[in-house]
Amino acid sequence: MYRRSNRAAFRLAVVQLADAAFNAIPNEWVKNDLDHLGFPEDLRIVFPIVKSASAVGLVAGLRWPRLGRVTSTALVAYFLLAMAFHARARDRPARYAPAAAMIAWSAKVRRGYQIAGV
Question: Running DSSP on this structure, what letter comes out for residue 61?
Answer without folding.
Answer: T
